[in-house]
Design brief:
With 463 residues, the first copy, chain A, is α+β, with helices and mostly antiparallel strands. Chain A contains 15 helices and 24 strands. Helix content of chain A is 35%, strand content 28%. In chain A, strand 15, helix 10 and strand 16 form a beta-alpha-beta unit. In chain A, helix 2 packs across helix 7. Chains A, B: Homodimer.
């Protein structure tokens, strides 16, 4: 396998193929096939997102993929932000359609034409829905699996509130949800308030979740947006308040994508392959029976262990293929399985199992009656992944004292006045764009370029 | 509510709206919004389909939604079958695309361009995959929720085999899987071998699962297709057999759609609303606390019962809304919840619960220590649904002795020689098309039209 640190791009492409995550050889470039193992991981990520959304009383819906040009053009600034990236359906059968239909690049315009039918009174608020669907972007840039694709696996939550204050509370709730999702995926991130020129088209402001990715770039894995009344005024979304007055709702959105998987692959993986947090591992525990004289009994014992673990609710499999144990170890390590159980004649005779953690070298023997301890070891693997990703974050994100400092950095913090002019200067000299002000940072300092008052900000080359 | 028997179409439209299954007011006609309750039911149906597919070692994948014209046109007969129904993407941003891209009407051409890359040797066979995605049809006919829509929630399984014989075994395995799915959905069906002119474009033969729907039409809820080497020869899908010879694979497919939900709604429902088999009920048990003097204690007791049932693995909810019990009963009956638990002061005092089954009028009291019995009652509801649907099937599907007999029937059986001529005659006189020969029927008789030798066949008006 490629060395991850030295050749990240090659390593990334290789592991994606070896682990069977996606196949990029489809006829249409940038539209990739979700292969079984990759799709399973993505579905497990979806399950986590659903769980925390449902907990906060979001309702799941699913909107049509097509949006008419008429719907899209209601909010001019919004459609302008996407106009170069939209796939247009113009024909049905042999007919030319009366109105062009867009493959959704995002669903504001699809949903908000319906909101006036659903939201009538203050008792309908807050209104909170989400969907997990594909969105489409006619990318002209170089595509990269899970990072920049033309068909994107996407989560989008949309809310409507009685006023801006209530919408702001929603923004905080999003941050809570995101914190939990990031924790299950063992991801460290920076919360960056995007500059005016880089916020979502139509938003009052946008906060992005940026992770450092090996390969010396940052990856935006998610965003939340405060829309205020901007869309409501264009799509005419009003409600009757307690006093019988008609008011515009305030709105927010929260978006996540398959980039979460890209981050998991890129940040946690090592030269052996993937390392998966146990919540999203399609196989959490793999059992490898070791051939020997009493292989029949070893196999029978292994299967009993598997059944016990299945009954405890784990995703567990047994590798009975006709390969050497060494081959199997490598194969499952490459696939990122957090825990391996080895069972040979000694384990059989002593009624125990040998555990190997994906993140550690040592092996651990536990007696069968302590089988429930696997839970702690799965958590240990997660803790290891978290420490590793925190260390990676801290090792690589420094505070720059001068523009020169920023040149050889990865993602880098600096005080910045917020002007496009200073940001452009930084980008020209260091190839790093302003990701924005660090969310909720209370410090202040002099802009690294112009010396005016500045806020603590993050800069990086982006994917 | 509308009377189901007398005004089926109105009843169907009304219950879909009342229960919150779909919203048809979206800008693009025939593309509907999956509302939360409808989407949950559909996802539970998907879970059943996944379970039985996975059991038979199918692997889930997900292909891009777009298929280039080049890919589609590899199999001429296939694309011809769809050419009037395809949505074409012709523009990306402001560019006109070099080649038109189809929104998948089905995925043969997307998948089979990849099969030669994945299938090389006999050890790769049988090759079995499926996906659950949306497919698109530019329908010119009148659309109807879940029955005829332009964006269709779709399950498609695709297999490749070493020879025709092995593919035929796959066809039998499909029938096994389908039998299990139909049983969980409590559906009765006819297995009809479609006539030549009505088989899937590109198939050697097609078997359809047809259910009688109230409204005097039959509904095709699923199909399986034997392709033989037809697609393999066009898409050049070959493998090296044990002797080192290159051979074409034989292929099959299995398709199911959101019509399964249409059948569940239409066949099982009654004048009170939906009736859901418990496997696909988003709420399997609803608890209604009855107001009274000791309401605090009743509520506390009700919540304990809910927690107990949740721990047993049931999807259970408690209705604490500020409505009368009668209103709540009607509401949850309309939503098709199989079991209701009523808890008032008597239940609290005597440490018991009162059960009401969606399919029966009587109420049943059980002591709290027998709470596990709810499983039997859920099964009783399913048995009631099954009896009802079997009775509906048998009451309505008769054997015709003459063409005149067929006129006032629903779906109707008759012997038929298999000729298009006789089928056309039947259709002209009775408005019923040939669904095909009854699968595996061993009897024979004289064609009801021409008197020649015929096979037992099914006829119906179709949706």
């Amino acid at each position: 396998m490629e060395n991850k640190k030295e050749n990240f791009s090659e390593w990334y492409n290789e592991i994606i193929e070896l682990a069977g995550l996606t196949d990029k050889r489809y006829e249409i470039k940038g539209m990739n096939i979700w292969m079984p193992y990759g799709l399973k991981i993505m579905h497990l990520i979806d399950d986590i997102i659903r769980k925390y959304s449902d907990e906060k009383k979001f309702q799941e819906v699913s909107f049509p993929v097509l949006i008419s040009r008429k719907q899209l053009e209601v909010e001019f600034e919004h459609v302008k932000g996407f106009e170069n990236e939209i796939y247009w359906v113009t024909k049905g059968g042999k007919d030319t359609l009366d109105v062009d239909l867009a493959l959704r690049p995002t669903s504001e315009s699809a949903m908000y034409t319906m909101f006036p039918l659903w939201i009538r009174s203050h008792t309908d608020l807050p209104f909170k829905i989400y969907q997990i669907v594909s969105v489409y972007r006619y990318e002209t840039k170089h595509t990269r699996a899970f990072i920049r694709v033309r068909e994107i696996h996407f989560y989008e939550a949309h809310t409507a509130h009685k006023d801006y204050n209530d919408a702001e509370k929603q923004m905080n709730e999003y941050l809570d949800i995101w914190k939990k999702i990031a924790s299950e995926l063992c991801l460290e991130y920076s919360l960056d308030v995007r500059p005016e020129w880089d916020k979502f088209p139509g938003a009052k402001y946008s906060i992005a979740f940026d992770t450092p990715m090996p390969g010396y770039r940052s990856l935006q894995v998610g965003t939340i947006h405060e829309y205020g009344e901007n869309f409501a005024r264009n799509y005419n979304i009003k409600y009757l308040d307690e006093n019988g007055d008609l008011k515009y709702v305030s709105q927010t959105t929260f978006g996540l994508s398959e980039r979460l998987l890209a981050a998991v692959i890129g940040i946690h993986g090592d030269d052996k392959g993937l390392i998966l947090p146990y919540r999203i591992a399609p196989v959490q525990i793999i059992i490898v029976p070791i051939p020997g004289e009493i292989y029949d009994k070893i196999l029978e014992y292994s299967r009993t262990i598997m059944d016990d673990l299945k009954n405890m609710g784990y995703r567990v499999d047994i590798d009975e293929r006709d390969y050497t144990p060494g081959y199997k170890y490598n194969d499952w390590e490459m696939k990122g399985v957090p825990l391996r159980i080895e069972i040979g004649s000694r384990e059989y005779n002593e009624n125990m199992i040998t555990l190997s953690l994906r993140t550690q070298k040592k092996k651990i023997k536990i007696s069968r009656q302590n089988l429930r301890d696997v839970e702690n070891y799965l958590k240990t693997v997660n803790d290891d992944i978290k420490s590793h990703s925190l260390k990676f974050f801290n090792d690589n994100i420094h505070m720059a004292k001068s523009i020169d400092d920023m040149k050889n950095e990865y993602m880098v913090r600096a005080y910045w006045c917020g002007s496009k002019e200073c940001s452009d200067k930084i980008e020209a000299l260091t190839e790093k764009a302003a990701l924005g002000n660090i969310y909720n940072d209370k410090t202040s300092g002099k802009c690294i370029v112009c010396g005016r008052d500045g806020k603590l900000s993050m800069f990086s080359r982006t994917y």
